[in-house]
Amino acid sequence: MKVESWLFGAGAFFFAPVGVIYGILTHWDEPVGPVGLFLTAGLALMVGWYLWYTARHIDPRPEDDPAAPIEAAAGEYGFFSPHSWWPLPLAASCAVMFMGLAAGWWLLYIGLGLASLALIGWVFEYWRGAHAH
After folding, report:
1. 37 and 19 in contact (C-beta within 8 Å)?
2. What pTM value is reported for the model?
């Protein structure tokens, strides 16, 4: 996590001066840009600090050791369903929800209901049927 903490920490030292430069170039007349850049710098600093703090309290990972062999990072990364169809209706219902933001709020509620059903189906797909565990 050492590299990640330095990467995010460096983002704070990039976005803060850019926010000042942006404010000077716009004569501080446009308030959204500098505020957004300062908030981005603060967020990068918070994430960098969290990663640095966490890296101090856990054992070093194989990614942090330049002399680590490739098989040091081997192992199980989790279970990913190769045949699930549920992401497709979930994505379609999210598209309906975003269209509801532009076309009408009633469409957002329909998409929210469809997304809830698709998400429940995706979460519980291995509880019933041929692939139940």
Report:
1. yes
2. 0.58
